Request: fold
Amino acid sequence: MEMKEKMPSRLLTTTFTATCALALSGFMFGGSEEQSPPSDRSRAGNENPIEIVVYSGRSESLIGPVLEKYEAATGNKVSTKYASTSGLTALLLEEGDATPAHVFIAQDAGALGALADRKMLSPISESILVAVEPRFRSSAGSWIGVTGRARSVAYNTSAMTPEDMPESIRDFTDPKWKGRIGWAPGNGSFQAFVTAMRVRDGEEKTEAWLRGIMANEAVVYPKNSAIVRALGAGEVDLGFVNHYYLYRFLAEDPDFPVRNHFMPNGDPGALVNIAGACIPRRNRTDSARLAAAEDLIRFLLDQEAQGYFAESTYEYPLAAGMTPAAGMPPLAEIETPEMDLGSLADLEGTLAMLRKVGALP
Amino acid sequence: MISCLLIATLALTPLVYLIIRALGESEAARVGSFLSSGRTLEHAGRSIGLAAVVTCSSTVLAFLLALCTGAIDLPFRRTCTILSVCPLAIPCYVGATVYIGAFSPEGMLGGITTGLGLRSGWFSGFWASAFILTIFTYPLAYLPIRAGMASADRSLIEASRLLGRSNARAWMSGMLAQVRSSITAGALMVALYTLSEFGAVSMLRCDTFTRVIYLEYESAFDRTGAALSSLALVLLIGFVLVIGERFRGRNGSGKTGRSRRPALWRLGRWRWPGLIAILLLTGITLVLPVTSLFAWWGRAGETLALADALVSPLLTSLSLATIAGVVSVLFALPVGVLVARHHSPLATIIERITHVGFGLPGIVVGLALVFTSLRLLPIAYQSWSIVIAGYVILFLAQATGPIRTGLDQTPRPIEDAARTLGANWARRFRTVTLPLLAPGMTSAFLLVFISSSKELPSTLLLAPAGTHTLATRVWQYTEEAMYAESAPPALTLIALSACLVATLVWREGLLEKAR
Reply:
C-alpha cells in the first residue's frame, strides 16, 4: 500500500521534472531566434557566412532594415538583441569580457564613454574613424558616432518668436519664464545635456541653474515627445527637447505651431550628442568576426544607410558629405559646445545632482 | 516532492539574487548611506503616507457602501451591490490614464483645467494618486466588509440594546464588533495593494518606492540603487503584513455555534440620498472612464493605427497570458497535492514560498529577474521566457488557491474506495482525482490568465525592447500624452478585467453551492 501511495507523487515528480526541464530549455533557447551561440568555425571570406551578435539600443523598426541590407550585401548573419541603451550598457557591464556581443549600437555618447572609461571597448580601425569629424568620435578611437541629435529649445510660434529667446539656455532661470517652460528631467538626452553643462560650467553653476528652473515651476513631462505635443497644444511656451521630435510632428501636420531654436555661441543648450557604435572587448578574439563587426560599422556609415537614417529619424547623418533631411538647418550651423563627447560618461554624477535638487526622486 | 522543491526554488531564486545584488556587491558604506539618506526616508514616508491615506479613505468608503447596499430598503439593492464591485474591473493605471487624459486641455474635463486657470498637468502627485487609488481599490475592502455584514448576527445587537443603549448606538457597536475582522482584512488588502502599486503612482508622478525603483532602473547604468530600494520596499511590505497578522490575531471573532438570525437594517429617509451617492460614485468610477475612452477613440476615428495600438499587443498579451496560465496550473498541481494530502512542516514551508511572489510588487519581481537572468542565463535576458517566468512567480499563488480548495473538497474516501477496488494510481488519477480537480484547474487558469494579461511593471522591465503588450501600450501612450491611441488598448484591458470580476463572482457562487 505504501508503495502504491507514493506512485502518484512519483508520476508528478517525473511530469514536473520534465516541465521544469522544458521551462529551462525555454529559458535557454527562448532567445535563440535572435541569438544563437556561434558554433561553426568561421573563416574569412564572404562565401562562408559569418555570424555576429549585435546589441542594439536603437529600436528594431529603425535599424532592422539596415541590418538586413548588411546581411544581403555581405552574406554574413546578424543576430540582434534589442533593448534600451542603458539596459544594454548595464548588461555589458555585468557581462564583462564574456559578452557574446560583437557590436553595440548605442543612442547616447555617455553610455559609450562609460564603457570606454572602464576599458571595455576594442579600438576601431583608423580607416573607419576618418569618415566622421573628430568631435563626433572618441579621441582614443574606441567608439564612433553614426547620427547626430541636437538639443534645442522648441517653442510655440503663437506664444513667442526667436527674438524673444535669451542668449543662452542659462538665462531661463529669469523669473519672466515662470510657468512657461516644459522639461523632462527623467529623460536620458536631457541628462546628457546636464552632464555637458557640468563639464562646461562646473558643478555649482549647474546646480544653481537646475534650482532656478525648478523655481520657475517648469512643467515636468515624462518624455521629449510629450513636451513637443504639449507645445503644439499651447500648454507651455517652450521646452528643452531633442531637435528631431518636431520634424515627426511636422511630417504629419505642416502647420504644427512649433519650431526649434538652437542656442548660439557654443551653448550647452545646443549640445549635439550622437547615436554611435563600438566593439566590446571580448576574452576570445576572432579576427574574422572582428572584421565582420568593423564591416557592419562601415556599413552604418555608408551613404545608403546614412541617407536612410536621415530620412526616417530626422537625425543628422555624421559621415562626411551627407546632408540632413529636407527643411532642417545644416549641422554646421548648430554651434555645439566644444567638448569631448566621451566626457559625458559621468551619468551617475548627473543623476545624483538631479536628485539633490529634487528634480528626480 | 522533488518537483515541489524545484518549483519552490524557482519561485525563490529571484528574491535571493535581489538580496545578493543589493547587499553582496555594494560596499557596506553604500548600504549605510542609503539607509541614512534623507531620500530613502522621504520615499518610505511617502509610500507609508499614501498607503495610510488610501487605506483609511477606501475602508470608510467601503464601510459606508456596505451599509447602504446591505440595507433591506435600498432601491435596486442587487444592482447597487454589483455596481459597487465593478471598479475592480478598471486597473489603477488605466484609471490614472483616463483621469490624466480627461483633465488635459482637450479632454472631457479639460474645461475644469482651463476654466479654473490651473496649470496643465495639475492632476498629479500625492493627492491625485490617493484619489485614483481610493476609487479603484475600495472594492478590495468592500467585498469582505459586505460579506461580514451579511453574516452578522442579530443577537449581539439586541444584547447591546438590552443593556440600555439607544437603537442607533446599539446597532453600530453590535455591528462593528462583528465586522471588525472583515474590516481589518479589507484594510490590509488595500494597504498591501497600495504599497505594490506601480502604474498609477508613476503616471501621476508620486515618488513612492515603486516609482523610484523604476526611475533608478531606467536611468542609471548601475542598478545597485534600484536593488536597495526594492529591498527596502520588500521589508516595508513584510512589516505591514506582520502588523496586519497581529491585528487579525487579536480580534478573533466570537462566533457562537447557535443558528444565526441575520441582522437586518433599514436606511429609512436616507435611502434615496444613499442611492444617489452610489450613482454618483459609479459616475466617477465607471461612467466617466468608459465614456471618456470612447470619446477619445471616436475623436481619433479612422486615423488610429489599430494594428499597432490594439491588434498586435492584444495577440502578444493573450499568448503570453495563455502560456503563463498553463505553466502556473502545471506548477500549482503538485504543490496543491502536496499541501492538501501530505500535512508536514515542509509542505507548509513550500506553500508559503509559492505565496512569496504574490506578496512581492511586480516591479521588484521584474528587477529581481533582470539580475537573475543576467547572472544565470544572459541569453534569456529580454526574451519572452523571462516575462512568463515573472508572471508565474507573481501569480502562482492564485493558481494554488483554487486547486487546493478543489482537492480539499475531494473526499479522500473516494480515492481510497477506488484503490480498494483495485484501480492503479494512474487510473485513479485519471478517473477520480482529475475530474474532481477540473473546475479548480479551470478557475486557476482563468485567474492567472487575466492577471497576467493586465500585468504592467514586470512586463515593462522584462519584455524584449520594441515589443508591446496591452498594458505597456497604455503606459507608453500615456507617457507620450497620446490619449486617443491609449483608448483601444485601455478599453480592451477593462473588458478583460471585467472577466476577472465575473470569474471571481462565479467562483464565490460555486463555493457557496459547495457549502
